[in-house]
User: What shape does this take?
Amino acid sequence: MQGNEIITEIFQKIEKLRKLAPGEKEALSYFMIQRQWMLEYKLSNSGYQPLSSIDHKRANVPYSKTLLDWIQQFPQESQLGALALGLSVHYITEKEFNNFLGSCASQINSINTEHIRRREQGWKIIPYALTDRTDIYGKLVHRIGSEGTSNADTKIPGPLESFIIQAAMTINHATGTQPLPYERFDLKPLIHSLLNKTYLIIEDWSLSGRTMGADISDFLHLLKVIFSTDKIRTAARSARFHLPELMVVLPFATEDALKRIKQILSQSDVGYSLRYHVITGFVFEADDRLAKGCTPDFIKNLSLCMPRIKWGSEAHNACEAFARIFTASSPEFAHGGKLDEEILKYGYGKKGWTIVGFHNCPDNSLPLYWKPFRMTSNKDFIPIFPRIISKVSHKGTGDEIRSMLDDTEQKQKILESKVIKVIKEIEREQG
Amino acid sequence: MRYSEDIIDQILKKEVRKIFVFAVSYEDRCIRLPELLSKLNPKRTKNRLICIELPDRNVHPLVSVKRKELKAKIQDLIEPEFSTIDRIKTILDTEICESVTKNQETNIIIDASGMPRGLILNILDHIGKSRNQFNRVFLTYSHPKEYLPGNLEIPSPIIKSLYSFSGVQRSSKVALAIFPGFNISETAVVISRVVDPDMEEQHVRLFWFLTHPGRHYAFYERSLSEHMVFFKFLEGFRSLEILCRMDDFNQIGVELIKLAKGIDDDEAFLVANLGPRIITVPILLTAHALHAKGRKVDVLIPQPLFYNSIRSRGFVGKLDVWNLEEEFSSIVNAL
Assistant: This one.
């Protein structure tokens, strides 16, 4: 399959391309064919996983064919923009993900070596996935040789959400707010699990920093509740325990997301000077997306190749057309409804990313890539990269847990004496 | 392990002799190290600042003008001694000899930012052969802020090699590892020089080492899409593609060694760098390590016939720094 024929067919279908002079058409089509070959090549080596078991007919078939079918769902006047956006996708294959992850793992190992160099005996890195749907968690814990990967008696920790919920319940139990009759809510294992540890939080990616930021805030809130008083911190330090550190790991992120996450960490008030590292395999530049003042790289190159066409405007037109078809088909979601029109055009955070991962499409990427819906004609709009919902809430572990921890703040005195007692017990046991 | 440029300050504070070697090119990033040195104000008695002037031939007039402009800036910043490519080896030999006779440590800091790939190969190979226990060698590199559109260099049909290219070129079995860049003409030259139409039973295997993600993801994608024509139509030659991070010398070394171990002993192993110039360094270190073990290996670098555009503008972030002794040891450990 050469794919050239389909690009030629697309050129015949789109009026603005039909009108180009033969020489212009040739130069532009070769430029597009190269890009389409590349996307096809990536997808043939690393298929889009959400499709593999449900539908073999979309992105995983030759991309040119998918592109043609997808473009034809747009009104004629928006098809040129849809074509530009269909070719602007940054498709991250599994091999690329692994390479990003390898970069993170070597940075983590360097930090770990630094702990060893500082002779911090018993220092451990505890890796937590942000949610139980983080696909690369298993790969990372193996690469860094985390506890639980080489010893069958120990388990790898799992999702951060569960840890925070369990910790909040334990604290409530300890302060008598909500006494629970189970050993698993004992304060000692919780404090033990926090001292001399670096908490590593991993998520597949972060494009806006909202999800990661919310969960980090919850974790920092937990640290604040436990280590907020001088007496607790002094007890830990005099027993030669280090207070917890934090490592945030993102195989890839955007500049915006990184800024937001770093801001949350730098402004954190956990009662002590928190040491933290934000580790990324790669950071996408802030302007490689479709938004005001920003243009995806491929569209910039199209403009260099064929400046007579306003590629940026065409791309925005396609997003607007998509939002129009959606709202016309689903009146309950129109203005003032559940979904903001700008989100329908440019995705959550209204950022307009063109990034797609091999195992999912981020919801901050353009919805025309991932949002399926039923059109009024009773036909389905079939996106190229239908998304799997990975997290319902972007508000961290939720209001319930936060209020549970807030309740505890009222009973700080009770918690303080119990935590200090536990620290002393652990110190005695460790000699 | 890659260090940040803060280490340069630490090196300068050491009471040892330091020789900084850099080149004036037509890309702004060649002044990043001189700018840093001008701020740190190194003492002349302990340090030498040597700027290599590249021959002003086979270049577009705009390239020539830009180079003159940057030379003047470097002159203003640190007043270095200027040298030619031919003279630099003699200067380095003299310094290296003196470090032995005076029994003193000498640090050699090579800035690759303004050096073409062939010059990096030449200088580092020379230092590698003549250095001694008194010398520490560091490498610095500055990334451009943006690449400019325009014509790419026209490659010469002549290829520079580390050892004796002609000795391995006509091998009946060849494993060719290519680090592709943007310029498919360079790739075409390398493949056509290795594949010998006169040999009836030559067995050539291609291995693509892609720089991923590169400084910008778009660069990786550009290199990949430019080379799709090879991937699609030379499919018979394509064995596999390997992704390498351009700043991780150890990863590049380990991947090359893994490949070298997987091919036959009598198969010539050729590594061609057509990608970022900095990759020449881990390739060179790995080739030296393999060569010392008796492996039939060579490094191929294409030569430009004509520089016809100013490739980049500005520079970004701090300089990256590597200690080449550390890098070489970690590559040797992977053998």
Q: What stands out?
A: The CA atoms of residues 98 and 139 of chain A lie 8 Å apart. The interface with chain B takes residues 2, 34-35, 37-38, 41, 90, 95-96, 98-100, 102-103, 106, 110, 281-282, 284-285, 288, 297-298, 304 of chain A (CB under 8 Å).
